Amino acid sequence: ILLGTRSHWARYGNGIELWIGKKPCNGNVIENCQISRCYDVGATIQGPSSQEVHSSDNHFRNNRIAYCRQGFEHWAETTDGPAIFENCDFRNNILYCCGDNKFEGTPQRDNDVALLAYKAPAKEFVITENLIYGRAYRFNQGCTPGLTDNEVYIHQGGGLLYVTGKTFKTIIPATDSLHLNFYRAYCGDNSKITYVLPDSADDMAIRSKIMRALKFKYPAPGRNEIEKYK
After folding, report:
1. Around Cβ 143, how many Cβ atoms within 10 Å?
2. What are phi and psi of 87, to 5 degrees?
3. What confidence tens digit (pLDDT) does each residue in 137-156 have?
4. Phi/psi of residue 199, each to 5°?
5. Burial letters for 55-86: b for 16+ Cβ neighbours within 10 Å, e otherwise?
6. Beta-sheet pairing, 151-164 with 169-173
7. What would the mean pLDDT of 168-178 be, rounded to a whole number?
8. In the Cβ-directed half-sphere of 197, how many Cα atoms lie within 13 Å?
9. Torsions phi, psi of 67, nearest 5?
10. CB–CB of 98/65 below 8 Å?
11. Cβ atoms within 10 Å, residue 219
């Protein structure tokens, strides 16, 4: 729990967070960062307000995110006025094994995915040209557009999309071509999506490819590695 805040839910959990309340954190380029083992999300733009919420000119590019509870998250909500994302993108990043932060005792949840979105639909938010590998792909309240041309590898039997609302919950599993076609028709996501059987020969080849792209010596650094930076 994050002591000193007025919120009962605020905690240390996110890697890089851009807050968009009354005084939004705008005009940022988050680039070439290495992020791993965050309790919650690796990188996020989020925030509530009692007036217009406006996130603008925020860009996440060429980052490498591994072993976080979620890879990338965005949401905004307001009680008076629109929630707007303008000239914001998440582009050419690598998300590896997000949905599993490697912390013992962390309960598995439906929103432990590569891409997480809450609240506003954020039509203006572009998520494109990313390389994604993991147990589950997306969690949304509703289905936000803006995803195009990503290269995605999802575990066979995992989740393509978890959709939740006030009165309903839908899961589109990653099991067959019918589910993939339904997902595309529902969301309009034209990304290249491949199912992989964990620990198969194809899975090992894909993991090796992504590990080379990550350029991490250790995607989730051990204690001895961390000690070097103290």
Report:
1. 17
2. 55, 50
3. 999 876 666 789 999 999 99
4. 70, 10
5. beebebbebbbbbbbbbbbbbbebeeeebbbe
6. antiparallel
7. 91
8. 4
9. 50, 50
10. yes
11. 19
Q: What is the pLDDT of residue 24?
A: 83
Question: Encoding tokens for residue 78?
Answer: 């307001």
Q: How many angstroms separate the CA atoms of 202 and 226, rounded?
A: 32
CA-to-CA distance for 230 and 224, rounded, in angstroms? 11
CA distance between the termini of the chain? 23
How would you write the chain as a 3-class SS string? CCCCCCCCCCCCCCCEEEECCCCCCCCEEEECCEEECCCCEEEEEEEEECCCEEEECEEEECCEEECCCEEEEEEEEECCCCEEEECCEEECCEEECCCCCCCCCCCCCCCCCCEEECCCCCCCCEEECCEEEEEEEEEECCCCCCEECCEEEEEEEEEEEEEECCCCEEEEECCCHHHHHHHHHHHCCCCEEEEECCCCHHHHHHHHHHHHHHCCCCCCCCHHHHHCCC
Q: Taking the alpha carbons of 19, 69, 152, 219 in that order, is the dihedral positive or negative?
A: positive
CB-CB contact of 125 with 146 (8 Å): yes
In tens, the pLDDT along 177-198 reads 999 999 998 888 999 999 999 9
The encoded tokens of residue 100 equal: 């599993």
